[in-house]
Amino acid sequence: MKIKSICFSVLISAFAFAQESAPMHIQNMSNDARSLLLKDGYKANLETEGNPYLGNDSFREAKIGNNEKLTSVRYNASLDAFEFLQNGQMLLMGKEDWYSPIYFPDLKNTVILAEYTYKGKKIKGYLFEYINGQDVSAYRRISRKFKKGEYAASSFDKDMPNRFIEEPDVYYLRLADGKFVEFPKNKKKLIALFPDKGETINKNIKTNDFDFNTMKQIIMILNKKSSE
User: Fold this and answer.
1) Are 159 and 220 part of one and the same domain?
2) Are residues 141 and 67 in the same domain?
């Protein structure tokens, strides 16, 4: 399948270019012909387990940016990109600010395009809203990693299929100034990030190491006004 950019007259005016050629398969070929190819060193394509999409490969209707018209899209977590179909072609949505946010009415969920740091590198990519707060909100990065398979070394071994692996979600806080920071893993780091709320944090959060079950409580504390 080829993915390429075209003009989208109704909603989108420019897209990022990406192209991936699908592997060739032997079709309508006699057993004798297949045998000759195999003897010549032909190797059948490795199977692929899983897919790069969030949930499954189905499309969902979403509102893109400020446009009220619904567009069917799906999130490719391996490419960190949204895909949609037009005239039988698979297209990638460009990572432009005017295509953000992406809102899914049936899920009541919002995805935004943001600049943030991941593994020490600054990137521009999609973050999924997790908890919406007045001043501080929580978002998560969802990713799938492609692991290439291997052919069996001998007739006694088995081929290892290609696989899409679900990577651990990474959580971020969106601060009042719009900056994104990775969610602190313990109380000490949280207080260092919000020193003016140190007393409130110490009073209300008893555990030192965080898991994401406490995230809602933390977001409530961070959004609470000093006078409340």
Assistant:
1) no
2) yes
Who wins on pLDDT, 151 or 40?
A: 151
Same domain, 123 and 172: yes
CA distance 81 to 102: 12
> How does residue 43 score in pLDDT terms, banded at 50, 70 and 90?
low
C-alpha to C-alpha distances, 83 to 15, 86, 107, 120, nearest whole angstrom: 11, 10, 18, 27
The length of the chain in residues reads 228
Does any domain span residue 80? yes
pLDDT bracket for residue 225 (50, 70, 90): low
Whether residues 220 and 171 share a domain: the answer is no
Residue 95 lies in a domain: yes
The answer on 92 and 193 residing in a single domain is no
Number of Cβ atoms within 10 Å of the Cβ of 31: 7
Distances in Å between the Cα of 226 and the Cα atoms of 141, 199, 221, 222 are 30, 11, 10, 10
Q: Write out the DSSP string of 47-70.
A: PEES-SBSSSS--EEEEETT--SE
End-to-end CA distance of the chain: 56
Q: Judge if 83 and 105 occupy the same domain.
A: yes
**What is the tally of structural domains in the chain?**
2
37 closest CA partner among 49, 25, 23? 25
Instruction: Provide the 8-state DSSP code for 99.
Output: G
Q: Amino acid identity of 86?
A: Q
Residue 16 predicted with pLDDT over 80? no
Structure tokens at 149: 């398979």
CB atoms within 10 A of CB 196: 8
